[in-house]
Amino acid sequence: MNIKIRNLTLGALPRVVGIVDYIMPPQLMNTFAGLGVDIFEVRADLIGEPIDAVIDYVERVREEVQAPLIGTIRETDHNREHRAEWLTRLARYVDCVDIELGMPEWRSVADSVPESTLIMISEHNFNETPDLAGLGGIVDRALEQNADIVKIAVMATCPSDVTRLMRFTEDCDVPLVTISMGDIGVVSRIIAPLFGSLFSYGYLSKAIVPGQLSAEEIIRAMKEYYPTRR
Predict the structure, then answer these.
(1) pTM of the predicted structure, to 2 decimals
(2) β-pair type (3-5, 8-10)
């Protein structure tokens, strides 16, 4: 299923998201874009700067980098009290905002998102991969939170966890991003687009979650295995 983020169509071919976890110079981001990074995710929770500095940075990036931006703030002890307010502010300057499934203040954030900005509802399970019914429940709850895209990142404890997630991805008629985490799930970061996952995340400076590959590794693999990426 095709969906647009800024001027980029998702679903037509595998896309790569590069994770920005520090104040990366826009020139360097453009270098990564030239290598094949299609989208950048600004992880405000990892950047570690005051939200005003992050917003100023994102505004500058929008002027100097043509690639779409995803804005994300994962919950930490530092941001818990203000996260909804910060997400609301960040959403005005990005092309897609990531709101975690079950976030208590999700409605106030979602209601404030500009019409041109996509809402991605994300679920992370660092312990296991739910069964098919459980995966379906995640999608249903995400749609109740106004999801345009549903992101499911779950831990793979055996190969069948990976194949089950891929089968679910292929059969789902909602725009999905799916990831099997951990060493067993590494292959999902390359093959998930075959089953309909919209994009794969790769790190630009250091791995953030178990089994994560660098954006450059993903790009090289996709150029080798996906003719449309060459």
Answers:
(1) 0.95
(2) antiparallel
Residues carrying an active site annotation: 124, 151
pLDDT of residue 223: 93
3-state DSSP call for residue 151? strand
Dihedral Cα 25, 31, 32, 34, nearest 10 deg = 150
CATH number of 3-229: 3.20.20.70
Residue 48: per-residue pLDDT: 86
DSSP H helices, 19-94, are 26-35, 44-47, 51-64, 83-90
Mean pLDDT of the chain: 95
Q: Which pair of structure tokens corresponds to residue 89?
A: 């502010």
Q: What residues does 122 pair with on adjacent strands?
A: 100, 151
Amino acid in position 168: F
In Å, how far are 59, 107, 148, 162, 229 from 113, measured between CA atoms? Answer: 16, 10, 12, 33, 32
**Residue 39 vs residues 52, 130, 174: alpha-carbon distances, Å:** 22, 28, 20
Buried b (16+ CB within 10 A) or exposed e, 23-50: bbebeebbebbeebbbbbbbbbbbbeee
For residue 16, give every residue at least 6 positions away whose Cβ sits within 8 Å of its Cβ, in sequence order, or none: 36, 37, 38, 39, 199, 200, 202, 215, 218, 219, 222
Domain boundaries, the chain: 3-229
Q: For 3, list phi and psi in degrees, rounded to 5.
A: -150, 145
Instruction: Dig out the tokens for 52 from the structure.
Output: 């005003």
CA distance 64 to 58: 10
Q: What is the pLDDT of residue 1?
A: 65
